[in-house]
Amino acid sequence: MKKNDSEKVGDPPVKDFAQRLLAWHSVHGRHDLPWQHPRTPYRVWVAEVMLQQTQVQTVIPYFARFMARFADVEALAAADVSEVLALWSGLGYYARGRNLHRAAQQIVAEGGFPMDRLGWEALSGIGRSTAAAIVAQAYGQREAILDGNVKRVLCRLFGVEGWAGERAVSERLWMLAEQLLPAECELMPDYTQAQMDLGATVCTRSRPRCEVCPFEKDCVAVQQNRVSELPTPRPRKALPVREVMWQICVNDDRVWLVERDQGGLWGGLHVFAQVETPRGVPLPPFRHTFTHFHLDIAPYLWHTHLPNPTPDTGAWWPLQEALALPLPAPVKKLLMEVQDES
Ligand code: SF4
């Protein structure tokens, strides 16, 4: 096959793709995920939002705690956003938690869950693929998903070139995803899960297990020996680096934390004071990477009994209580280290 043959729009999809994927899934797929039992709109929605950017194994305990505290959308809508963020603490991408809470209030205000993909897309923080994943799993609607796992599989299987963030590439992938859908609505919940499972467990980012993939014989990337080149990565751009010094103030078993304003980076979360001139003992510096920049953090541990140890408005928290607050992952990690030392 010539290199570009696979790139023409309108390629016939792999024969019997859905049936073969489902056959694979019935033996090797995940059938015991907590949000599958039962697959209600509420549970599927919360799970899909948590699964954006986060792996299944990480999500499971967060999902369980979330469901234990907020049994339904009414409970979630009525909660204070700080409690939602506290349960989100450590999962990252906190805008998801804030949007989930806002969307719960929208749903309650509108008298119930949206009944189709476009209705879900109108809610805070829900894009096309997440909306499709919800209606496909909760209602059995024929909607294609295109999350990171599915993009990777399609790029390799069909030899799709170019970064998926480019419009033409994205349109081609959506078209393929739609062409491959099974005809029967009742297959949609398992089919949707099967796509995610194949990408997460077989067609993995590094070292995919092509020898156990049901599509090995059809796969353009395998035929052309280009598995490691596809999908085409985002064009490289060096991330900018920002540097901060964090003042960890400790007063016996209490710690000084500052609550950030809502909105913006780590909005509504509790952090250490950021200072120009630190005091106390330097702890090992480390890097935390966001999508758009690296944050190089230099923490300083200072034992003090001052009532207001930093210019920022903050509060003294008993360590145990501090650990239950909504915290960014690097703050939580440092607090746990402080706790181990004390
Ligand atoms: S054969 Fe390999 S590269 Fe192709 S879809 Fe399967 S796991 Fe992915």
From TrEMBL:
This is Adenine DNA glycosylase. It comes from Sulfurivirga caldicuralii. The keyword Signal does not apply. GO terms for molecular function: 4 iron, 4 sulfur cluster binding; 8-oxo-7,8-dihydroguanine DNA N-glycosylase activity; adenine/guanine mispair binding; metal ion binding; oxidized purine DNA binding; purine-specific mismatch base pair DNA N-glycosylase activity. InterPro entries: A/G_AdeGlyc_MutY, DNA_glycosylase, Endonuclease-III-like_CS2, Endonuclease3_FeS-loop_motif, Endouclease-III_FeS-bd_BS, HhH-GPD_domain, HhH_base_excis_C, MIG/MutY. Binds 1 [4Fe-4S] cluster. SMART domains: ENDO3c, FES. GO terms for biological process: base-excision repair; mismatch repair. Belongs to the Nth/MutY family. It catalyses: Hydrolyzes free adenine bases from 7,8-dihydro-8-oxoguanine:adenine mismatched double-stranded DNA, leaving an apurinic site. Residues 50-201 form the HhH-GPD domain.
